[in-house]
Amino acid sequence: MIAIVAVVLALGFGLYRARTDGRFRASSSTADGPAVPAGAEGGTSDARTWDDVIAALPDARLGERATLLQFSSAFCAPCRATRQVLSEVADVVPGVVHLEVDAEHHLDLVRRLDVLRTPTTLILDASGREATRAAGAPRKETVLATLDGIV
């Protein structure tokens, strides 16, 4: 009986992860305000996202139209796939920059931005506000479609 319950729970969790990994969702609230759905106008998303990033990574640059901010770790296979996808997107979409952050070396930034796992991708708008985020490895088509709604 215990084995059956364990299998059912594992199957349920696996289906949940398969359904949610790599999907962009509304930005979560950080210290400054409520979440704002992707593409929402006039909201109060975290205006300090870029300020937090630039404080941790002084050489980083904000994209003219958007920034793909990826949090990765050294031994994360999905992080390598995400790096490739986001780099390709940044190469084909003008004004979009891909910035990768090593989560292990920037734990304060990870905590401030409420990153719970790697890879996590935040899409920042031209002003440096978080528009949306995805936990897990997103597909190229998903990133392009999400960007289309932001830029």
From TrEMBL:
InterPro entries (alphabetical): Thioredoxin-like_sf, Thioredoxin_CS, Thioredoxin_domain
Transmembrane annotation, as ranges: none
UniProt-listed Pfam families: Thioredoxin
CDD domains: TRX_family (cd02947)
Domain Thioredoxin intervals: 30-151
SUPFAM superfamilies: Thioredoxin-like
Annotated segments matching region Disordered: 25-44
Name of this protein: Unannotated protein
Organism field: freshwater metagenome
